[in-house]
Amino acid sequence: MACRNASGPVRTRRVDPSELTRGGETGRAGGSKPRLARNAASGSRAGASRSGSAGSQPRSSRSSVPPEVFFVDDIEIHLQHKRVKNLNLRIARDGDHVEVSAPAWMTQADVVDFVHRKRDWIETQMARAAATPMARASQASPAEVAQWRAVVQACVPALIAAWEPIMGVKAGQLAYRNMTSRWGSCQPSTGRICINVRLALYPPECLEYVVVHELCHLLERGHGPRFHQLMDHFMPDWKQRRDKLR
Predict the structure, then answer these.
(1) Rounded CA gap, 24 and 41, in Å?
(2) What is the residue extent of each domain of the chain?
(3) What is the 3-state secondary structure (H, E, C) of 57-124?
(4) Neighbours of 44 (CB within 10 A)
(5) Alpha carbons 179 and 194: distance in angstroms, whole number
(6) Coil, helix or strand for 238?
(7) What percentage of the chain has pLDDT greater than the value 70?
(8) Which fold has domain 142-243?
(9) Which among 188, 187, 213, 189 has a CA at the least distance from the CA of 199?
(10) For 60-106, how does the pLDDT look when each residue is reduced to its tens digit (9 = 90+)?
(11) Which strand (E) or helix (H) includes residue 12?
């Protein structure tokens, strides 16, 4: 399940080709304020696991082709050309770099020009991302991770025990991992539930949301209308809790 970690501080800028410089400045892009758009790759919304288990996934960008890495001044850019119509700009969850998806026809010079013109917005979003718990987690020591594990491991069994009779389900084995792309996962066939220890860095209500989300997968495997209806029924404020993980 993704507490959609997976949400988070991710900010996306989707750019129409007319905004880019191709032989000269066009339109009003130079002075326009970037609009935030949701990234298609699941991020801080709950999403189904590719491996067959249902799971909550923070937003993340994945591709089989390594990105082209370069710098625009002191901003690290990870560029990938994909089958997309527009340029999509995404701030890494830890604020370390900027991820860009661009159409095949778009050149590196186009991307550099756009980054230069939107530098103030990009730096603001990078600073915000760098101040989040996920940024802190990326720099954590093994001792810190062990502390998170102890906190989460102490809280989850009690939450499971409280929610099982309410939801009419029975969880199987519980596991705890330091994950970068999910808040939790559930295997409906076995009842096994895995929880991200990084939830120790977030408000307690976020951990409870993830637990209920995963237990819900014992009633509904996917994330369709019935799953949302179940979440609305058992935890009416689940969307507000999920948003705290973004």
Answers:
(1) 32
(2) 12-132, 142-243
(3) CCCCCCCCCCCEEEEECCEEEEEEECCCCCEEEEECCCCCCEEEEECCCCCHHHHHHHHHHCHHHHHH
(4) 29
(5) 10
(6) helix
(7) 74
(8) Zincin-like (3.30.2010)
(9) 213
(10) 445 568 889 999 999 999 999 998 998 988 888 778 899 999 999 99
(11) strand 12-15
Give, in order, the Cα–Cα distances in Å from 202 to each of 55, 148, 207, 220: 18, 11, 8, 26
Per-residue pLDDT tens for 217-232?
999 999 999 999 999 9
**CA 117, CA 72: separation in Å to the nearest integer?**
11
Q: Model pTM greater than 0.85?
A: no
**What is the sign of the dihedral through the CA atoms of 22, 24, 28 and 32?**
positive
What number of helices (H) and strands (E) belong to the chain? Answer: 7, 10
- Please provide residue 46's backbone torsions phi and psi, each rounded to the nearest 5 degrees: -65, 140
Backbone torsions φ then ψ of 32, nearest 5 degrees: -80, 150
- Joined tokens for residue 234: 């058992």
